[in-house]
Design goal:
With about 190 residues, the chain is mainly beta. The chain has one domain: Alpha-ketoglutarate-dependent dioxygenase AlkB-like (Jelly Rolls, Sandwich), CATH 2.60.120. It is built from two helices and eleven strands, in the order αβββαββββββββ. The strands form three sheets. It has a five-stranded antiparallel β-sheet with strand order 1-4-11-6-9, with helices on one face. A four-stranded antiparallel β-sheet has the order 5-10-7-8, with no helix packed on it. The longest helix has 10 residues, at about 1-10. The model has no long low-confidence stretch (mean pLDDT about 95). The chain binds N-(carboxycarbonyl)-S-(naphthalen-2-ylmethyl)-L-cysteine and fe (iii) ion (FE). Fe (iii) ion (FE) binds near residues 96 and 150.
Length: about 190
């Protein structure tokens, strides 16, 4: 899987996203799939191309296999977001809600150093719980969990030997577009 992710990063280099207010994020990102997640002064959104104008590479088969095994989803993912955390990178508490079909789960795969993951509920305030995500861990957020607030508080350097220069890669698969069943009882 790591070799396939290196190919994705070669075809679509990691970039530093900016918040809509212009602040650089500490996590570097790229995507695979028909749509990639981008963020800049234009806002958070899915785009058909990398910020440099390149097409996004296909989602690797090893990653799609995990989706098939764990998601129980009706649809296949349209985006695999690749997040790279060096020591010191973090991700603030947020919801994943730039997608049009919340009936489909989000599946994430952690590779490399351990990360302290925090998850809350459907509103920003209130109680949160923290878990360590370790290399090889797969998280499925479906049903009621799909819209919970979550984030990464910190990375524990030197806790994995998978990445020669350390750090953490997180792969997050998502269905992005609306269901073609539309707004029907079945859809
Ligand atoms: C909980 N990534 O890219 S993965 C993100 O480790 C993101 O890089 C984190 O949050 C990371 O948006 C967390 C685990 C995860 C992914 C999606 C979720 C947890 C989630 C969606 C809803 C609730
Ligand atoms: Fe998220």
């Amino acid at each position: 899987m790591l070799a396939e992710i290196r190919e994705v990063v070669r075809a679509a280099p990691l970039f530093v996203p900016r918040t809509p207010r212009g602040k650089p994020m500490s996590v570097r990102m790229t995507s695979a799939g028909s749509l990639g997640w981008v963020s800049d002064r234009g806002g958070y959104r899915y785009a058909p191309r990398h910020p440099d104008g390149l097409p996004w590479p296909a989602i690797p088969n090893s990653v799609l296999d995990i989706w098939r095994q764990v998601s129980a989803a009706a649809r296949m993912p349209e985006c695999c977001l690749v997040n790279f955390y060096d020591q010191g990178a973090r991700m603030g508490l947020h919801q994943d809600r730039d997608e049009a079909d919340f009936t489909q789960p989000v599946v994430s795969i952690s590779l490399g150093d351990d990360a302290l993951f925090r998850v809350g509920n459907h509103s920003r305030g209130g109680k949160t719980r923290s878990f360590w995500l370790r290399s090889g861990d797969v998280v499925v957020m479906g049903g009621d969990a799909r819209l919970t607030y979550h984030g990464i508080d910190r990375i524990a350097p030197g806790t994995s030997t998978l990445l020669p220069r350390g750090g953490r890669i997180n792969l997050t698969m998502r269905v992005v577009s609306a269901s073609d069943l539309g707004d029907t009882p079945a859809g």
